[in-house]
Write a structure and sequence with these properties.
Elements: E1 8-15, E2 23-29, E3 36-44, H1 48-55, E4 65-66, E5 71-78, E6 90-93, H2 114-118, E7 130-132, E8 135-139, E9 149-153, E10 157-159, H3 166-169, H4 175-186, E11 194-198, H5 202-213, E12 218-222, H6 229-235, E13 239-241, H7 250-258, E14 264-267, H8 272-282, E15 288-291
Parallel strand pairs: 4-8, 11-12, 11-14, 12-13, 14-15
Antiparallel strand pairs: 1-2, 1-4, 2-7, 3-5, 3-9, 5-6, 6-10, 7-8
């Protein structure tokens, strides 16, 4: 492409400081260096984690930054040493990088790449390829997809089918793999089991899909928005519960529905109160309990096991 090797000026949503609105700015994106790839972002989603970092005021040293980590785009140019990717390839940036060669990448029990943790990438200020008004911008999780262009490590890219619709597959960058993987890989849902999925956003729907793929017999979708139930049915939910329709605690409702409780429970809301209400009941039954989302509060309850 004609922009290869040159600085690209483009628009980005910049977070100058925590708890403040993002500002659309013109930024400069430097060319990729050795083992790096510059990507034109075509579609990006907004994840709760982006809002968490912006609003919770827990990472003051991370500003200013460009957020975003759930996207899809097209390779614009590659740096020296990159051989697996070419300009024009459709790709998904990865916030969990994998070299596919180290002992951890080859181990089916983990995906925490040894090389990714040991190497400084664009997450660190001195390595950032973003500049705005003469100031370096940090790159969130090494991806920063709230920009028209971004630069990532070659370890942080997944090549996808050229025919894939980028406005849809961008969700594979976080939400879909988070929910689906939680059901299949973390909870290890078993064939014939009964599952409860709390929250029917993108992560929850993916968890429902994962439960179905794993062979669950009953998949109970729990959400306070009944408009989501039809879509959940498409993904594999067999039953639906709206907590607002019941006076009893949701744990009691599910216990009565299932004759004692579900086999697998997946929390996809990120609400501490929901987690606590579930855990008090489900831990007693010794079922598999999987909390998927990042809670937006601090636990202030005593955890116990009465069994």
């Amino acid at each position: 492409m004609g922009t290869a090797g040159k600085i690209i000026k483009c628009k980005a949503a910049v977070a100058w400081e925590p708890n403040k609105p993002l500002v659309i700015e013109e930024i400069e994106v430097a060319p990729p260096q050795a083992n790096e790839i510059r990507i034109k972002i075509v579609a990006t989603a907004v994840c709760g984690t982006d809002l968490y970092y912006l609003l919770k005021n827990m990472h003051k040293d991370s500003f200013p930054m460009v957020l975003g980590h759930e996207a899809a785009g097209v390779v614009e140019s590659v740096g020296p040493g990159v051989t697996e990717y070419q300009p024009g390839d459709k790709v998904i940036p990865l916030f969990i990088r994998q070299c596919r060669e180290c002992r951890f990448c080859k181990n089916p029990k983990t995906n925490q790449c040894e090389k990714a943790w040991g190497v400084k990438d664009m997450t660190f200020q001195e390595k950032s390829r973003f500049t705005c008004k003469g100031k370096k911008l940090l790159q969130f999780t090494g991806t920063s997809t709230f920009a028209e262009y971004t630069v990532v490590s070659e370890l942080a890219v997944a090549k996808i089918d050229p025919a894939a619709p980028l406005d849809k597959v961008c969700l594979l960058g976080c939400g879909v793999c988070t929910g689906y993987g939680a059901a299949v890989n973390t909870a290890k849902v078993e064939p014939g089991s009964t599952c409860a999925v709390f929250g029917l956003g993108a992560v929850g729907l993916a968890a429902v899909m994962g439960c179905k793929a794993a062979g669950a017999k009953r998949i109970i979708a729990v959400d306070i928005n009944p408009d989501k139930f039809e879509k959940a049915k498409v993904f594999g939910a067999t039953e639906f519960v709206n907590p607002k329709d019941h006076k009893e605690p949701i744990s009691q409702v599910l216990s009565e529905m299932t004759g004692g409780g579900v086999d697998f429970s997946l929390e996809c809301v990120g609400n501490v109160a929901v987690m606590v209400r579930r855990t008090r009941f489900f831990v007693t039954l010794r079922i598999e309990d999987c909390i998927i989302t990042i809670p937006h509060a601090v636990f202030s309850v005593m955890l116990w096991s009465p069994v």
